[in-house]
Amino acid sequence: MKRLLNLLVVPVFAAGLASAQMNGPVPKSFVTYAAEPASIAAKKPAVVELHFKVLDGYHMNSHTPKSELLIPTVLKLEPATGVKLGAIDYPVGHEYSFSFNPQEKLDVYTGDVTLKTHLTAAAAGTYTVKGVLSYQACDNAACYPPKKLPVEIEVTAK
Amino acid sequence: MKRNLAVLGVVALLVAALVWAGVQNLRARRLAAEKAKQAPELALVKEGETPPTPSVSADSFVGDLDLRGKPAPAFTLTTLEGKKVSLSDYKGKPVLVNFWATWCAPCKLEMPWFEELRKKYAGQGFTILGISEDEDEPKEAIAKAANKLGVTYPILLTDHKADKAYGDFAILPMSFYVAGNGTIVEQSAGLGSKDDIETKIKKTIAATGAM
């Protein structure tokens, strides 16, 4: 009898969870950041990759959207002691149009998005560079207010 | 033994309830899918690819917080021309309160529909207030965007309080259909079909007439 009851508990809870997820609220964030420690040579210019992912079913404007009314994706990094920050390289966006407005060509990011930051560590050591990715996302029928995603880069220079 | 049977009975009831909920959900999804067929194809399309079918119709989506049946929160905002406008100025009349932004393509698609329907039902006292949620755009850019869409109904500038009062929504466009007695009779989140917008307007006018 106990085994039978145990067998029933799992599907009951799973069904409950599945039901709750079917009508979920709007996501709090449409982009995730995969923080990965970077190793670089000290006192030499280096390039560190930053990996982001746009949630399936959503897109965000690229760094260079085709209309000045659209909000671009921008990464801003804060100065960090011992680290000289250089330029940020943004990937090329994809050209897309909403099917309800095929004349308007958008330049967007979807899926995996990799940005590159140029930096130089003044000396050997471990540094944390903080920043914020600003973006604005839409799906196929709605748009979501601009958001800011905190970013932290841990860099070890040897 | 009796205790185990009782527990088994409770579990069986729970499973039955979940199955019933699942059936209801499936029925609702099928209904939404039928409505979606009537809505315009709304899909991000890469060149050469076939647009995917929308999974949920915005006609039936109200957003995270359902304010239908509740009093429409009051607001006083400034138009592009610098005039103060309050929702209470329209007491006794059916009003569509629409939140939009210049960076929102789905918002800008429906605004010409709004203008057309406003003119169609103006004789029944219907009007529209468009609240721009733009933060960094100068007034002139918002006005230019509205003019380009052919909009002549009032465009109000957000005070970052009205949107919070209407549920602090995280999606645009958001539309609230307010009857003459100040009650929100319909609400929609995201782009819906023009037919559904007109249905909601007619319902709001009817609710006002029944006051």
Q: What would you say this structure looks like, in words?
A:
The complex is a heterodimer of chains A (158) and B (211). The termini of chain A are far apart. The model of chain A is unreliable at 8-23 (pLDDT under 50). In chain A, strands 1-3-9-6 form a 4-stranded antiparallel sheet, with no helix packed on it. Chain A has a 4-stranded mixed sheet with strand order 2-12-10-5, with no helix packed on it. Chain A has a 4-stranded antiparallel sheet with strand order 7-8-4-11, with no helix packed on it. The radius of gyration of chain A is 21 Å and the shape is elongated. By secondary structure, chain A is mostly beta strands. In chain A, strand 7 (94-98) and strand 8 (106-109) form a beta hairpin. Helix content of chain A is 13%, strand content 46%. By secondary structure, chain B is α/β, with parallel strands linked by helices. Chain B is 40% helix and 17% strand. Chain B has a 7-stranded mixed sheet, covered by helices on one side. In chain B, helix 2 (105-121) links the parallel strand 4 (95-100) and strand 5 (127-132). In chain B, helix 2 crosses helix 5 (194-209). Chain B starts with a helix and ends with a helix. The chains are: A mainly beta (158), B alpha/beta (211). Chains A and B meet through helix 1 and strand 7 of A and helix 1, strand 1 and helix 2 of B.
